[in-house]
Every structure is written in C-alpha cells, then in structure tokens.
C-alpha cells in the first residue's frame, strides 16, 4: 500500500514543543544548545545518586563524563545523529530552566518507523509531573510530525518511578528482556513497553489533559 513518507532527511527535528503546566511548573522541550553545558553539568554532578543507578554503564568517571567540558562533545554527537535522522534529542525545561532530557533514539524508518525513548529529570522536580508531560509532548510529535509509528521504552523492574511515568501515559507492557542492558555495572533485566500511533489517536497530551495531570497555560 502507498503511504506518504515524512519530508526531509531529519523529519521532526529540530522542534520546540509545549509548554504544558504541571505541578512542578511550566514544561517545554527544545533541541539541546551548546550553551546548555553549565546548567546540564551542575544538575548531573549534583544528582549522581539519583541518576547513575538507572543509566547505561559508560567509560570514565561520573564527574568526567558530566563535567561542563564533556557537554560540547555530547551536544555535537547528538546534533550529528539528529541531522542524519537517527535521533531526536531534546532537553526539558521547567519554567525556562534546563531540568532534564528526553531522547528518541535508534530511529529506523522503512517498514518499521520505530524508535526508543529515554528520559531523566533533575531531582528538584521529581514527583511534579515533568517526565510524563515531556514524554507526551515528544511522543505526539513523533507520531504526528516525525513520521514514526512505534515508540518503545525499556525500564528496569525496580524503577518504580519510571514505570509510573509509562503507566500514566498508557504504554503497553509487551515483555521482559533478560540481561538486556549494562546499567550501573551489570547486565540488567528490562521490562519492554511500547505504543503505536493507533493506540493514541488523540495523542498523549490529550490523555494527560483529560486525566487532569496537565493543563495548557492561557
Ligand atoms: C523516572 C523519572 C524520569 C520520573 O520523572 P517525574 O517527572 O518525577 O515523574 P512523575 O512526576 O510522574 O513521578 C513518577 C513517580 O515518581 C515517584 N516519586 C514521586 N516523588 C518522588 C521523589 N521525591 N523521589 C523519587 N520518586 C518520586 C512516584 O512514584 C511518582 O508516581 P505518582 O505520581 O503516581 O506518585 C525520574 O524519577 C528520574 O529522572 N529518575 C532517574 C532517571 C530514570 O530513572 N530515568 C528513566 C530510566 S527508564
């Protein structure tokens, strides 16, 4: 069957999405900037305990990987992947200040049109509805403008906060991947979740609004 494809080499990127009002503040997402380095590093160095146990193992020390000086390399590799249409990288802002990241990665087109989504938020806004709002904005964008059909998320069974984010958004649990990813120094089981565009004809933002978890600011 013929289906119109998305336009350009990197459909859906760059983009600015939101804002949505949630208990923590006004949530928006935008592409990462070179000048985000010091705010990003300040949060990442302060929040090591909050973040490290859930993130993929990587070479080097936490302090080196998350120093302000590490940002230009990360920013430019995210931008290069985005320009090749392989990733849609976003930072999350709360009341205009950087407060996390949402990344859509491993974008595969053709007859899959699929990608994974990953996210983190700063410890000072956890529990304030930031991740659900940011993920909803980005997933709707992926389905409506970036030409994707399926978004997958994998979460360690112990990560109750992240499981709640996916539950609030209505992601479907599809399985358990044994020893899937090297996280915090060991191969960890992950629960696999997904949504396809048909699951959310009105979008995830609409779902959050209908559930009273977010409002659109006047
Ligand atoms: C998982 C994460 C993104 C959730 O973001 P968030 O913006 O806090 O999401 P929510 O506000 O919807 O809160 C989700 C759940 O976190 C838990 N939570 C609430 N306050 C919390 C706090 N102070 N500390 C820890 N968890 C808390 C609650 O279970 C909450 O669910 P509830 O709203 O039903 O009570 C965030 O905790 C985080 O960045 N964690 C570290 C990185 C990570 O795990 N990333 C995901 C990897 S799969």
Automatic annotation (TrEMBL):
Domain N-acetyltransferase per the UniProt entry, residue ranges: 41-198
Enzyme Commission number(s) from the entry: 2.3.1.267
GO molecular function: protein-N-terminal-alanine acetyltransferase activity
Key words, A-Z: Acyltransferase, Transferase
Gene3D superfamilies listed in its UniProt record: 3.40.630.30
Entry-linked InterPro entries: Acyl_CoA_acyltransferase (IPR016181), GNAT_dom (IPR000182), N-acetyltransferase (IPR051531)
Top class in the EC scheme: transferase
SUPFAM superfamilies: Acyl-CoA N-acyltransferases (Nat)
Top-level taxon of origin: Bacteria
Family: Belongs to the acetyltransferase family. RimJ subfamily.
Protein known as: Ribosomal-protein-alanine N-acetyltransferase
Upper lineage: Bacteria, Bacillati, Actinomycetota, Actinomycetes, Pseudonocardiales
